[in-house]
Design goal:
The chain is an alpha+beta fold. About 35% of the residues lie in helices and about 20% in strands. The strands form 6 sheets. A 5-stranded mixed barrel has the order 14-16-17-18-19. It has a 4-stranded antiparallel sheet with strand order 2-1-11-10.
């Protein structure tokens, strides 16, 4: 055969290798030993042609192994047909997905469709992926289908031109039955030879492939390869456009539903609605699409950089020119005075002239501004904490003394990266600050609680306990005294909170609220409940309500709003409960409200 294949770490294996091809009823069928009959020669040539087509260099035949590898499954090494892209950005055949198992120790989010998971087959990833997040890759499946079609037509054409032929075997292999006519399959075109070996499971993903061409065929075969690769370049181009900006995918990211977009385009789409722009399926991923949490599609990225690098460079220059290469930044007027929380109401009085101007400008715009906590409440000019809350104006009342009373509602968090002064007030150059994705949230609980966790922590049995215990005793006993009957399940420290499931942490906080309402503590009045509403049983909303109603210091508010997982915020609420319990042990019967870490 004219082609040669052998792993790089075994250069002498070719001398002892053999190959045979069998003809069965006139149809060539490669024998499994086919791959071992080849000699290796070093390849020569440029990485790409200098002739350009639509601004992109034509791939040189030396790219044959690289392109084939991009389209090979990393596990079975067969060119893709039914492709699944994992949340870690790597793609494999659907048939190569590891067996799934039920992960029922994760309590948040408790969606049943996230209990079925797989262990990522790539050791350098090590993540656990929900089966729900491992969908068929729509774009990559289309590309793979096109490649198979183009290669099939090229194979027929190459055979008619004499680049694919059979030659007799000089030394027949004794293990081949006598009714098989043993022949070599000679392939003189580099890409077709490489692709053929891959389709026959004779070229592992990490193997290299070097070959020489039949005497007199080098120039013609190279021109054939160039034409074939140019056909692939032109054919595949229509499938690598982003369906949001309709330009070549730049930093392509594949959503859990299997659709691929530019990372920046998807970020902007998420600002309006947290779902896939094509199929409208809700997508629970990191809102900022940080590359460490949401890696790019490795295969599509490689194909784009191989075939259309000039277009990639042009898109990068455009992104840099527009200032969008890394972040989607927003300019937010800032009120430096305190903090609120998402979904929670707030009332502020505005009396300073610069903030009156800010209020007027905001009311003439979208009615939104930001609030940040000063580093030193006594010296507002000394700076502020970078994490703030975006507020929506609900109502405004103007008083005769010049003050304005503004009713606000917290919307979302942001992080101030830089700031400047406009008409006397501060404007922050900011980016959204959102929670991590669902997969990171699940991984955090699994890491802290462990695989043997169950809902046997204190909060897990709390409601059953209250249903069976004496109601009169419950009304007189302190909250933490009633927990003594749980023994070691009673959280005593931050270490104990770490070991509780996320659901148990939520129940711990809910039970504390129930007991303090029964005790009619001064800081949880009916008036406050009318303002902030009843305690929510949603683990996302509970910490924000808790932080708005419990008497905590400003540093603790900053601590809560700076936590970017539901689990971390629930643990912070649990630490406040433990602190109140500790203080009450030393100051029992104190009538005045107790601020946390005041």
């Amino acid at each position: 055969m004219a082609t040669s294949f052998m792993p790089q770490d075994d250069p002498d294996a070719a001398a002892a290798a053999r190959s045979a091809s069998a003809v069965d009823h006139g149809n060539p069928r490669p024998h499994p030993d086919f791959a071992r009959h080849i000699t290796r020669l070093s390849s020569e040539g440029r990485l790409c042609e200098t002739v350009h087509d639509n601004g992109n260099p034509r791939p040189h035949p030396d790219f044959a192994r690289h392109i084939t590898r991009l389209l090979q499954c990393r596990l079975c090494a067969i060119p893709y047909k039914l492709v699944v892209t994992l949340p870690c950005g790597r793609s494999i055949c659907r048939s190569c997905l590891p067996p799934s198992y039920v992960r029922d120790w994760i309590t948040y989010p408790s969606a049943p469709d996230r209990h079925q998971v797989i262990q990522c087959p790539f050791p350098d990833c090590g993540r656990v992926h929900a089966v729900k997040d491992c969908s068929s890759d729509v774009t990559l499946n289309k590309l793979a289908t096109m490649v198979h079609s183009v290669v099939a037509r090229a194979w027929t054409e190459a055979a008619s031109l004499g680049f694919i032929k059979e030659s007799p075997v000089l030394e027949p292999m004794p293990e081949i039955p006598d009714d098989y006519e043993q022949k070599h399959l000679v392939v003189d075109t580099r890409f077709l030879a490489t692709w053929f070996l891959a389709t026959q499971s004779l070229l592992d993903y990490d193997d290299e492939f070097h070959f020489h061409v039949t005497h007199g065929q080098h120039t013609q075969a190279e021109h054939f390869d160039i034409g074939l690769l140019q056909t692939l370049q032109q054919t595949l181009r229509s499938e690598v456009d982003c369906q949001i900006c309709f330009s070549l995918l730049y930093d392509p990211f594949t959503t859990p539903c299997g659709h691929t977009f530019c990372r920046h385009c998807l970020m902007r789409a998420y600002d309006r609605r947290e779902c896939c722009p094509l199929c409208r399926r809700p997508v629970d991923i990191d809102r900022l699409l940080k590359p460490d949490a949401c890696p790019s599609n490795d295969c599509i990225t490689g194909l784009i950089r191989t075939f259309w690098q000039d277009e990639v460079d042009a898109r990068k220059e455009a992104f840099v020119a527009e200032g969008m290469a890394t972040r989607h930044l927003i300019h937010i007027p800032l009120l430096v005075c305190g903090l609120s929380f998402p979904g929670q109401p707030m009332y502020v009085q505005i009396f300073e002239p610069q903030y009156h101007r800010m209020l007027e400008n905001v009311l003439n715009g979208n009615g939104k501004f930001g609030m940040v906590m000063p580093l030193d409440p006594e010296r507002l000019g000394d700076g502020f904490h970078p994490i703030g809350i975006l507020l929506q104006i609900k109502n405004t009342w103007y008083r005769q003394d010049g003050r304005s009373l503004v009713e606000l509602e917290g919307l979302s968090r942001f992080r101030v990266l830089n700031w400047y002064t406009h008409e006397g007030y501060t404007v922050g150059v900011s980016e959204r600050a959102d929670d991590v994705g669902v997969e990171q949230e699940e991984a955090m609980e699994a890491a802290e609680v462990g695989y043997d966790a169950s809902d046997s922590a204190a909060g897990g049995h709390l409601y059953q306990f209250y249903d069976t215990r004496d109601e009169e005793a419950a009304a007189t006993a302190p909250f933490w005294t009633s927990w003594r009957q749980f023994g070691s399940d009673m959280p005593e420290s931050a270490v104990d909170l770490d070991a509780m499931t996320t659901e148990s942490l939520m129940r711990f906080a809910l039970s504390f609220v129930d007991r303090t309402r029964e005790k009619k503590v001064p800081w949880l009045t009916e008036a406050k409940l009318m303002t902030y509403g009843e305690c929510p049983d949603d683990p996302v909303l509970l910490p924000w309500w808790f932080g708005s109603t419990i008497p905590i210091s400003n540093p603790q508010k900053v601590r809560l709003i700076s936590a970017f997982t539901v689990r971390d915020r629930l643990k912070i609420c649990g630490s406040w409960i433990l602190e109140m319990r500790r203080r009450t042990r030393y100051k029992e019967q104190r009538a005045e409200p107790m601020g946390i870490f005041s």
